[in-house]
Amino acid sequence: MNEASRDGWRQTAAADLPAMQAISDAVHGAYTEPEGIFAERLALYPQGCRTLERGSAVVGYIITHPWHRDTPPKLGKPLGAIPKDADTYYLHDIALLPAGRGGGSGKAAVDFTVRQAVQGGFADITLIAVNGADAFWAAQGFAYVEGAEAVTYGEGTYLMRRSLR
Questions:
Q1: Tens digit of pLDDT for each residue in 57-70?
Q2: Looking at the whole model, is its pTM more than 0.90?
Q3: b/e sequence 15-37, b meaning 16+ C-beta within 10 Å
């Protein structure tokens, strides 16, 4: 297999967890989460986890899963389970190193999330934007949820939602 054939998004594997932790630390700063959170999300909802490779290097990841639209998961806290009464598809985390940016990687991650949400029968996708990413998410069709400050991660973070209908 040549290096170029491994470029792109693929299913996340447990072996990717250390790289995901390093990417989160590099990209998210104060909003990084412990590796155990990534491991739990992968165990609970593997179909919502993808890893981005460029050559033989992991350069990004995305974690998505069903959840409750008005009470997003708390930063760094385990979920315990995916709720049976979930009413939104939650984009928990996306992180791309500079080597993973460009070439449509972000759009491909959003497209993956939309497909997962539609297949799951959800009417919308919810996320919390951090580190100035709200501009990117707005360009992807997400809107700010008014009055949601109490459920974000603090100043400069925003609950955002994209309707799929």
A1: 999 999 999 999 98
A2: yes
A3: ebbebbbebbeebbeebbbeeeb
